[in-house]
Every structure is written in C-alpha cells, then in structure tokens.
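Can you please make up a whole protein chain along with its backbone structure tokens because I've never seen that pairing?
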Amino acid sequence: MVLSKKTMNDHLGSTRLSYTATIDATDKITYNVMTMRDNLPFGRTWREYVNGKNDRFQFTGYELDGESGLNNALARMYDPELRFGSVDPHFMSYPNWSPYVYSMANPIRFFDPTGKDPETYDIDKQGKITKIDDQKYYNENGVEVDKLQSDKLASIEPSSDDIMFYRPCQVQLTDGRILQNVYIVEMESYYKTWGVWPGADPNKKYFLIEDVESITDSPNRLPASFANKIYLSGETGMGYNVFEVIFKNSVRKRFVTGNGVDFIQYPPGLSHADVIDVVPKENTSEIDIDGPEYYWCIYSE
C-alpha cells in the first residue's frame, strides 16, 4: 500500500526528486524513487529519471503543460528554450531589462514564481534557505538596497509640469562620486512623459537607482515655486526653455535649459535663497548662462 508521495525541491523551488513510501503486510516500509531531475540554469532539463508518471510541477514549481510543453508561470507561459513568450505585466518596474527576460538574466540568484517579479533568497552558514522579503528592493546581486531612502526623498520638495514630479537632487553614488544635478523621478510618469526609458535615449545621461548611496537637496536647484511657474508657462521652443531669474539687489540673469528647468548655474555669491522671481522669455537673445548638465534616475513606488 502506498503511504505517501513526497517531493524534494531546491532553493529555486524546482522539483529535484520525488519518491513514494509503500508498506507491505509485514509493516515494512519501502521507498521508491519516482523521478530525479537536473535542470540547466534557465530551466531546460539536462538529465532526468522517470519511473512511472512524471512530475506535474517542475522548474521553479511551474506546472508543466503536457499539451504545449510550456511551463505555466501563472501570469504568463514560460519556455526554457526561448524564455517568456509574453510581456511581463510589471515590466515598468524593470526598465533596464527586456520584458521577456527571466529573472533579470540571473537564474542562479533569482527565481520568478509568478511570472511577474523576480525574488531572491538567503543561505545562512548552516545551509538554511530563507526567501527574502519581496517587498524590499534588491540589486542584481541580490543585495538589499534601501528603497530609495524614501524618507529623505520625500523631504525634497518636487516641482511639477502636471504630468511628472521632478525631485532635483544631489546624490552620492556607491563608487564615491557626487553628482549635484540629478532628477529622481517615478518611472511610470517618466515613461508617460518621454515614451522611452533613459537607457534607450542617447540624449540623456542616467544611472541606476541601486547605484545611489545617499540623497540630498541639490544646491543648484531653483525653488520649486519658481520652477513651477516656468513649467506652467510652457516651453520657449521645442525641447528648450528660456527664462530670466531675478535675484536680490536687482541682479537679473537669463538662462537657457532643456525640458527640465530646475537646475541653473548660480552666479558667484548667489544661491536659491536669493531668488525672488522668474520671468519666462520668448527668445534666446542675450543669454547669460546655459543650464548645467544633469542626470536622470528613475524608481518604482
């Protein structure tokens, strides 16, 4: 009589071995191996042993569809030879990866049980495997990253063009570099505005959010109320803005920037605390100062 059927899974959730336990009339228990399986990194079967019926759930715990030969990853179907056959429903959370790629192309460190989001794990010194909280944020090596240092980011007053909130920041990167002019923006509004990710736009400089070590307010930003006034007036021309900044002591300077107007090069001895007004202009004559170079960094809320 068969007492039970058991399976043994690896750290990615893949079924590696299944066996049954049977008991005879003398109460002797016998264990019978039914299947053994080794997979290549992306799920293709490398070698297997099947004694009877094959396992219903195999790579990463996906249900194998006997008719199509594909793996049911809940949100979409997965082919170990070709990867996913449809777009990731959460593709906007992973702008630097193809929407068809499996687990950010790192199937040893990550697994994707739902077809939507890669997950990762931790192994302690005793070999115990623990799934890491999938509400946290991880870089491509599975190392937890502070979710954008959200408290600090929330303290930076954004400007807005009614579509996207711009947070003009100074950041320190993990390699030690300090960049004074960085727009940190939410990815869905960024994509809605530009229609392309920054990595696919040769005109934009950008870096990944996991490369950020710390965030502070940019010393080169316009106060948000004045930046909003320029955004509200609309662009001077296709892709650029011209405006005059009025400082204390009647100092007036004209600036030209790209679509983003938050960063300016302050004249010596002046800062954002000295700005008393801005006046949008309609032409590029008598420009005093060009806008500084800036970077983009997008994140998912």
Remarks:
- Confidence is low (pLDDT under 50) at residues 138-144.
- The chain has three helices and 21 strands.
- The longest helix spans residues 224-233.
- The first strand starts at residue 2 and ends at 9.
